[in-house]
Amino acid sequence: MEHRSQAESALGGAAYGMLFVLGVVIGVVGGFTHPDPRWQVGPVPVAAIVWVLVLFAVCLGAGKLMRAKLGAFITAVGWLLVTMPFTLKLSAGDLVIADGLPGYVYLYGGLAGIVAAYVLSPSSERGSWLLHGYPPKNSM
Known about the structure:
single chain, two-stranded antiparallel sheet, 4 helices, 2 strands
């Protein structure tokens, strides 16, 4: 079993914390900009499609860089914790992710994207590039 120092454990916690924050930022910015009419080509919501691709790429990149499905999962959780409340209608009638094609593409495409990124991320058997432990010493 690989032993990590406190500094390596803190670095790991900070890395996963930043991935969570990155997911939150993607959720906030994407939630407010996905229905941008300037990015609408006919009936196709290009902005929503771009945000889905960005979310997929960031989650997959996090999983591959951390060499663990947990990297993709943590980023996806940050996005989900912001996006899901955006779908609720407030008493004043405000709604961030509205009904309609851009909202459906952003919401359901994003969910499909994070599932695909999680599935395509490697298992954590090799260890993270960031959190690799000290190589075992050969005793002779």
